[in-house]
Design goal:
single chain, mainly alpha, 51% helix
């Protein structure tokens, strides 16, 4: 099985190519396909070698599965950030009676606008 193709599907594709291209042109196109696959493989190996040369000995220590974008789950990242221990030895959710909740610690204090004063206007910002 190649990728998501089973043996029967590959056989069906070969038969369709034989019917569309004909028996005279099929060997030429098969050779071109083989050359294309070899070129792509050589290109990938060259990029890998260039990365290895530029990154040095640390290249082999990289965990490539960790860098896979399919692993990205924002809910998991936020959950881990909120539950990891803080520097004080307590959990991020707090532990002391005088400690503010997480939402209060994360929200910056915004200045309150006095409605009796005109709204601030910045000419440089417009």
């Amino acid at each position: 099985m190649i990728g998501n193709l089973a043996g029967g599907e590959i056989l069906l594709l070969v038969l369709a190519a034989l019917l569309v291209l004909g028996p005279t042109r099929l060997p030429g196109y098969a050779a071109k396909l083989g050359q294309g696959v070899r070129y792509l493989r050589d290109l990938a190996e060259g990029a890998k070698g260039q990365l290895r040369d530029e990154l040095g000995p640390g290249f082999d220590d990289i965990d490539w599965r960790q860098l896979d974008p399919r692993q990205y789950d924002p809910r998991r990242i936020v959950r881990e950030a909120l539950t990891e221990p803080s520097s004080g030895g307590r959990g991020a959710r707090g532990g002391g009676p005088d400690e503010k909740p997480v939402s209060a610690r994360m929200t910056p204090a915004l200045p309150v606008h006095d409605p009796s004063l005109p709204t601030p206007f910045d000419l440089d910002a417009t």
